[in-house]
Design a protein that fits this description.
The complex is a heterodimer. Helices cover 19% and strands 19% of the residues of chain A. By secondary structure, chain A is an alpha/beta fold. By secondary structure, chain B is an alpha+beta fold. Chain B folds into three domains: 6-110, Sulfite Reductase Hemoprotein, domain 2 (Alpha-Beta Complex); 135-290, Sulfite Reductase Hemoprotein, domain 1 (2-Layer Sandwich), CATH 3.30.413; 415-549, 2-Layer Sandwich (Sulfite Reductase Hemoprotein, domain 1). Chain B contains 18 helices and 20 strands. Classes of the chains: A alpha/beta, B alpha+beta. The interface between A and B is large, with 42 and 47 residues. The structure holds protoporphyrin IX containing FE and iron/sulfur cluster. Iron/sulfur cluster (SF4) binds next to loops of chain B.
Chain lengths: 185, 554
């Protein structure tokens, strides 16, 4: 029997080995750096490879890291809004949005704004304590990648992406709300 | 009324299947209590003192007779044979088994009903005037807008995990019967100088432990922008509303903290970015939505004949005349009248109806009112389109089913929460207080003489019984483990909405009927001819009431 997702351990997201990307299970090739480590992160000490930086660190180092643009992602905590990344989203390969608790729905707004306002086309990844029952809504808000915490078997979670076959509103996945589509009939 | 198409049916069926899976995972121990909680709440299921309760959505209070009959069957099959009309125009079952809920939802889906978002921290069922479409003072019928809001808010992917619950009410008349200033968003339909339809938008109203009357943040929003503006408000709230303290999480607290002006500025800034986007209500979309609320096939009547018939009946039966006076409401079409079936005879918890009564309502609706039924926020039932010449027949039938108590709008037509008999948060019971007051004031002539009077009772400060906005409000409080009741005066839910003021120290349950009696005495003694309680109160203030109620026995 699969175990339920872990309770929020603290305020920080985990970085599991495997993730769901575009409705398939994949190895996690990114290294998410949580906040508040012992040493200060600088452009020089930052380990090589793909990293997801906390927003505050990215804001500070982004200019120095221009040459590594393809392997620098950003994660937003739930109290950090999408406009803090703004149009720079267009250039980023990956943005992660954190759910400190699954009931904290701020990341849904962040997702839609990144996709629909700031032209983000890279990987939009949910991290932290969200749950499978939120997958359709996350998907509709533009998330295409899901880093589940705990040891949940990802195979069983995929089907939750199919819970709904249509939707009432316009969102990141649907340009017109249902009433406009119906009125056109 | 709105009818589902294949897409609605499919979405609701998919939702039932999703919830069935979630319930199974919960029962198998795969979902924790904490994880299942928001999922079941968003499907109307919450757990109370005695059993789970299921709150079924009645979009803006409107149902057809088929749906009412299905509710009757469901109460028999899965519950104890009765249901409860709520102050948010919904229907609640008090005793379903958790395991049966997916089946109940599937049976509801067959008749185009659901329990989606009737609870939980999401956008709830939109409410409106029970006389929508028939009221003479209506600017524009609010129902098409309510339906568009329903579609926009149902399964809204961005707003299913808000800081707290979120309620929207729409009003299309000058007299506000939907208490829009007591909602998170109140939408008042208005027309500008050019005669164009638009909306005045109120935000930040709400009751509960911090009651606040909503403030207008926009005086004229053009019709096409309704949904984008709502989206902007909810988006600002979703980002900035407090999540650290459940009691400070409603939008009203955010509006207070930022100030209405700053809140409005942020909403406008957000809205500027989305107003010309996909959510625009194009004229095609509005025409499409209006198509579902056509004018029924009204007949034409000979006015003098109708009048004569009514006069005869009223002359012959005093009881009918009384009912006609209190329980019917003028209709904009000549020859018709709207009827309120009272769910508040003495001794029955306000809003409770049996399965047989539900069937009787459905029969009456078919026979007298184009098969349509509306639930009111005062927990009564309205048949909106009754031919005046048939009122007498309808009255006789309603009387047999126990719906003809002629007390609409009077002291005994109370709003009352379930209170300590059912609710684990209660400080005190509320239903027995309602009953004791109904028993003391059972003289109809006296009640009519008092005129319109809202008496609202809540068993604790969560204010489900709207005590803050009753002309007389009663609140259950706990004093060293004993049940006491605080009295407030001067609240109002209409266009002049106000919050009641506390009269003074609280009373025991036994003292309550006599206390209300003293308050009414002060009113009667000070009243100018035909003045309403609330107007007398506003004129003379709290002091005379206070002096009488707390006068030392001499
Ligand atoms: C039986 C158990 C019930 C419980 C435990 C309960 C609990 C609550 C709580 C905690 C609140 C305050 C929420 C807040 O301020 O954020 C509330 C508000 C409310 N409840 Fe209930 N409720 C119950 C039944 C009902 C029923 C049966 C109705 C309808 C007749 C109802 C109608 C309302 C309304 C209209 C409010 C809104 C007040 C506002 O705008 O803040 N409740 N309820
Ligand atoms: S007002 Fe209090 S006692 Fe009454 S139903 Fe609401 S929570 Fe329960």
């Amino acid at each position: 029997m699969p175990k339920p997702a872990k309770k929020p351990v603290g305020a920080l997201p985990e970085n599991p080995e495997r993730v769901i990307i575009d409705r398939a299970i994949a190895d996690n090739t990114w290294n998410l750096l949580p906040l508040g480590g012992e040493e200060e992160i600088t452009a020089e000490t930052l380990a090589p490879g793909k990293v997801i930086l906390p927003l505050s660190v990215w804001l500070e180092l982004r200019d120095q890291l221009q040459s590594r643009k393809e392997e620098i992602g950003v994660w937003l905590d739930s109290d950090e809004t999408a406009d803090l990344i703004g149009d720079a989203a267009e250039e980023l390969p990956l943005i992660a949005a954190h759910f400190p608790a699954f009931t904290d729905g701020r990341a849904f707004t962040a997702g839609r704004l990144l996709r629909q306002r700031y032209g983000f086309t890279g990987e939009l990844r949910a991290v932290g304590n969200f749950m499978r029952d939120q997958l359709t809504y996350l998907n509709r808000c533009g998330f295409n990648a899901f880093a589940f915490q705990g040891d949940q078997p990802l195979e069983g979670l995929l089907e939750s992406l199919q819970d709904f076959s249509d939707s009432y509103q316009a969102a990141a996945d649907q340009p017109l709300p249902i009433f406009r589509r119906r009125a056109l009939l | 009324m709105y009818r589902y198409d294949e897409q609605d049916h499919k979405l609701i069926r998919e939702r039932v299947a999703q919830f069935r899976g979630q319930t199974e995972r919960y029962l198998a121990g795969e979902l924790s209590e904490e994880e299942f909680l928001p999922l079941r709440l968003q499907n109307g299921l919450y757990v109370q003192r005695l059993a789970p309760m299921l709150r079924i959505a009645v979009p803006y209070g409107l149902m057809n007779s088929t749906q009412v009959r299905r509710l009757a069957e469901i109460t028999r099959k899965y519950d104890k044979g009765y249901a409860h009309f709520t102050t948010r125009q919904n229907v609640q079952l008090n005793w379903p088994n958790l395991e049966d809920v997916p089946d109940i939802l599937a049976e509801l889906a067959e008749v185009e009903m659901h329990a989606v978002q009737t609870s939980g921290n999401c956008i709830r069922n939109t409410t409106t005037d029970q006389f929508a479409g028939v009221a003479g003072d209506e600017l524009v019928d609010p129902r098409p807008y309510c339906e568009l809001i329903r579609q926009w808010s149902t399964f809204h992917p961005e707003f299913a995990f808000l800081p707290r619950k979120f309620k929207i009410a729409v009003c299309g008349t000058e007299t506000d019967r939907a208490a829009i200033r007591a909602h998170d968003i109140g939408v008042q339909i208005v027309k500008n100088d050019q005669g164009e339809v638009g909306f005045q938008i109120f935000v930040g109203g709400g009751l509960g432990r911090t009651p606040i009357i909503g403030v207008a943040i926009r005086d004229f929003l053009p019709e096409t922008h309704l949904l984008s503006y709502l989206e902007a408000i909810v988006r600002v709230y979703n980002q900035l509303g407090r999540r650290d303290n459940k009691f400070k999480a409603r939008i009203k607290i955010l509006v207070k903290a930022l100030g209405a002006e700053e809140f409005a500025r942020r909403v406008e800034a957000e809205w500027e970015q989305i107003k010309d986007g996909a959510d625009q209500l194009t004229s095609e979309a509005i025409t499409w939505a209006k198509r579902f609320f056509p004018e029924p096939e009204y007949k034409t009547f000979n006015a003098s004949h109708t009048e004569a018939v009514l006069r005869d009946h009223a002359g012959a039966e005093k009881a009918f005349a009384r009912w006609l006076e209190r329980n019917t409401f003028p209709h904009r079409v000549a020859g018709y009248q709207a009827v309120t079936l009272s769910t508040k005879p003495t001794g029955i918890p306000p809003g409770d109806v049996t399965d047989r009564q539900l069937e009787a309502i459905a029969d009456l609706a078919d026979k007298y009112s184009f098969g349509e039924v509306r639930v009111t926020h005062e927990q009564n039932v309205v048949l909106a389109d009754v031919e005046q010449e048939k009122l007498f027949d309808l009255w006789q039938e309603a009387r047999k089913s126990g719906f003809a108590t002629p007390n609409i709008g009077t002291l005994t037509d109370m709003i009352c929460c379930p209170g300590g008999d059912y609710c684990s948060l209660a400080n005190a019971k509320s239903i027995p207080v309602a009953e004791a007051i109904q028993r003391k004031f059972d003289d109809l002539d006296y009640l009519y003489d008092l005129g319109d009077l809202d008496l609202n009772i809540s068993g604790c400060m969560n204010a489900c019984g709207h005590h803050h906005i009753g002309h007389i409000g009663i609140l259950g409080v706990d004093k060293k483990g004993e049940e006491f009741y605080q009295v407030q005066l001067g609240g109002s839910s209409n266009q002049n909405a106000s919050l009641g003021k506390v009269l003074g120290p609280s009373f025991s349950r036994e003292e309550m009927p006599a206390t209300i009696g003293k308050i009414l005495d002060v009113f009667v003694e000070n009243r100018q001819p035909d003045e309403l309680f609330i107007d007398t109160y506003n004129r003379i203030g709290l002091v005379p009431f206070k002096e009488r109620v707390y006068a030392k026995a001499s």
